[in-house]
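Quick one, T. Sequence first:
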Amino acid sequence: MSLAGGPPAPDPREIGAILDRAMAEVEQKIAQQRQVLKLIASEDAAAPAECPLLACPRLDRLRAAVMDAIEVLDETRRSFKSRQLEALRKRLGEALR
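Structure tokens:
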């Protein structure tokens, strides 16, 4: 059965599987947030190396863009002898570590 020429309605069993996957993702995100909040709440805990809430494809794209910028700055450092550009390249490199 379809709605007014749209795609056919999903099988009720598929809807259940879709909801199960969606709820599993929500539960995973809640567990990640719980970990972060526990770290924040504990006074003697060291800061985590990387926040689990930031593990996403967008972060990978940002990391790749920064790496590209560092590479361009490194390749052009002989053409443009700028202490500011050198400092920027170093700060970007440090930010990725």
